[in-house]
Amino acid sequence: MNASAKRAQDPAARPVLDVQAVHKRFGDQPVLRGIDLTVDRHEVVVLIGASGSGKSTLLKTINLLEQVDDGRIFLGDEDITDPRVDTDRVRARIGVVFQHYNLFPHMNVLDNVTLAARKVFGTARADAERTGLALLARIGLADKAKEYPDRLSGGQQQRVAIARAIATDPELLLLDEITSALDPQLVGEVLDLVGDLKAAGSTIVMATHEMSFARRVADRVVYLKDGVIIESGPPEQIFDRPQREETREFLSRVR
Ligand code: ADP
Ligand code: MG
C-alpha cells in the first residue's frame, strides 16, 4: 500500500508536516522556489545545502516567522498558511532551536525550560517544574537547574534549549544549525541528544552541516540548492549513490 492509501485508512498516518509548492522571495530575490516536503510521525528529515540555499527560510516559514508568497503548509490537518490562523497557537505545537541566543539570559535554566508550559499552556508552576526537572535529569543537567545560561558551556546551553523546545511535547521539532556556533568538542553532546530524541520518537526537521551525523540519524536527507529540492532520499542514497550531478558536486565540496 502506498503512503497516501495508508493515510486514507489511518488518520494517525497523516504526515505531521506537509509543505506544498511553497514559494518565498525577499524583494526580487526568489529564495524558495516550489518546495514540496512531507514529514511523517517519528521521521527525522535533515536539510543540507550550501549557505544561502534557503534552509533557514524554509524552517521559518514552517514556524510562521516568515510568510509564504505562494503554496500551503499543513501541520497535521491544519493549513497554517491560512491568514486567519492563530500564530501563537500554531507555534505552541512546534519546538524550535536556532544556532544562537535560544535562552533568556535573565532567567535560570529551570525557568527557561518551564516558561512556555506556564505562560502558554497555563500549567501550574509546581507541575511545570516537576516536568522540567525530570527533563533536565534526562539530559544530564539537573544540577544546573538554578544556574543562569551564561554560567553554562555552549553545548550545555544548546541542550537546555532543546529541553525547552520539547518541554511542552510539540508535534514537530525544528532545529536550525544548532551546533554551528559551538566549539568542535561540544558538538557531540548536542548531536547525541538529538539522537536520543529520535530514539524516543520525536518528529524532527533539522538543517545541519554535520554530514556524518546526517548519515547516522536521518531517515531522509533533503538537498536544497537555490531554493529548490534537488534530491531527497535515505542517507545511503544521498551520500553513497546520489542521483543528481548537483548533489555529487555539493558533497564533494563539503567532505
Ligand atoms: P541558509 O539557511 O540555507 O543558509 P537562508 O534561508 O538563510 O539560507 O537564506 C536564503 C537566502 O535568502 C539568502 O540569499 C539570504 O541572504 C536571503 N535572506 C534570508 N533572510 C532574508 C531576509 N530577512 N531579508 C532578505 N533576504 C534574506
Ligand atoms: Mg541557515
Automatic annotation (TrEMBL):
The keyword Iron does not apply. InterPro entries: AAA+_ATPase (IPR003593), ABC_ATPase_HisP-typ (IPR030679), ABC_transporter-like_ATP-bd (IPR003439), ABC_transporter-like_CS (IPR017871), MetN_ABC_transporter-like (IPR050086), P-loop_NTPase (IPR027417). Keywords: Amino-acid transport, ATP-binding, Cell membrane, Membrane, Nucleotide-binding, Transport. SUPFAM superfamilies: P-loop containing nucleoside triphosphate hydrolases. Residues 17-251 form the ABC transporter domain. Belongs to the ABC transporter superfamily. This is Amino acid ABC transporter ATP-binding protein.
